[in-house]
Automatic annotation (TrEMBL):
SUPFAM superfamilies in UniProt: PLP-dependent transferases
Positions where N6-(pyridoxal phosphate)lysine occurs in the chain: 278
Entries under NCBIfam families matching the protein: Glu-decarb-GAD (TIGR01788)
Protein name (Swiss-Prot/TrEMBL): Glutamate decarboxylase
InterPro entries per UniProt: Glutamate_decarboxylase, PyrdxlP-dep_de-COase, PyrdxlP-dep_Trfase, PyrdxlP-dep_Trfase_major
Any GO molecular function: glutamate decarboxylase activity
Catalysed conversion reaction: L-glutamate + H(+) = 4-aminobutanoate + CO2
EC number: 4.1.1.15
Highest rank taxon of the organism: Eukaryota
Keywords attached to this entry: Decarboxylase, Lyase, Pyridoxal phosphate
Family label: Belongs to the group II decarboxylase family.
Amino acid sequence: MVLSHANSMTRDDSVASTFASRYVREQLPRYRMPDRSIPREAAYQIINDELMLDGNPRLNLASFVTTWMEPECDKLIMESINKNYVDMDEYPVTTELQNRCVNMIAHLFNAPIKEDETAIGVGTVGSSEAIMLAGLAFKRKWQNRRKEQGKPCDKPNIVTGANVQVCWEKFARYFEVELKEVKLSEGYYVMDPVKAVEMVDENTICVAAILGSTLTGEFEDVKLLNDLLTEKNKETGWDVPIHVDAASGGFIAPFLYPELEWDFRLPLVKSINVSGHKYGLVYAGVGWVIWRSKEDLPEELIFHINYLGTDQPTFTLNFSKGSSQIIAQYYQLIRLGFEGYKNIMENCKENAAILREGVTATGLFEILSKETGVPLVAFSLKDSSRFTVFDISENLRRFGWIVPAYTMPADAEHVAVLRVVIREDFSRSLSERLVNDILKILRELDARATHAVRVSSATAAQSDDGVVSKKSVLEIERDVVAHWMNAVNKKKTGPC
């Protein structure tokens, strides 16, 4: 006997299209968890549709962060996305891959490592965490030395340029360290080593040099800083070290400028951070900090845990984190090798040169970035009386481009710039297309400015006392709109 069953399929289950279901007709709660579940297909479609309104990462020229990787690496990332990196005993191979990355990067930075030694370093979520860890190591070493000398250790400071990334300000505020900034000046947008050394005192835990300024991509003169600081240490008896923030330039300088001395070849450089997710060519979420030797990382900052199965040393600000980016970094290092990284960096440099030539050819901009440094182009308007770089930045979004406009830090705030970062996935054809779109926008902005001047001149009002006053741009626009609306309303001929 065949038993008949009532059809339990709901109306929504029978609808093939998510867009025909009730889940896209009803407003989802925004700030409270909904009472009922929804099908996975509907949840995916709703979120995917909202994300369509985000910018295109490939056209986000504001960011230094990698936006493209090879499909094979994407596959590795997805296969390891459920691994918690902190479980070192459970995932020993992942831990080994991290250690290999640390050693490869340390050798790339010319760390003085003997054949039977391993490098001292750790993978981090990004350069921000790496800088926090390096700063804590400097602070603790300085405190220990001051205590041994019987001197107060409650007023540590770091000397940097005003062009440092905000993570340095975070470190200073979070860990109670005074940040002494060398101010910038027009035409010189990096830290002046001479002024930096002048600001050093007995409470300085380190001087932070930037290899690849966020503002202009320029490399600071770490060699000169090392030489000047060495002399000051000899004169004063201090032992002030250097940290190099190579977040952007650490994966560039070794391949494009191998003769440039900025790394552990300089005796006072005790630690270096670099962002794997920038020119290390890995998606966002990985950074590295490398110390010169074991003596430069105080043992008391390292925690030893055993409740995950074995003794595990750890020095991080967080605990759990994904393994994917660590594995992706190892993939890039062995996949590309020195030759591959060099080819990519040379290509980025060439594309930056193409863009620089195109921007210069307009005759309207001054190039502020240097040819030696991070492959980016920072430029300002020679004349901002008719329109500004902020107008250009806003209009570029119409074409999909995200190009930041910003003002320089203290003592150079009057300088406003546009900056285009050249990444691996920014091809020559895209560079040429960007220049063409900038030219279109310049013509449009110039035409608007010319029209505004003409209308302003034609509608200048004369007051009762005979003084001629100019109307504001908004008033002029309202007058023009009202004039044409009146003309349309009077029009009686033609189709309705």
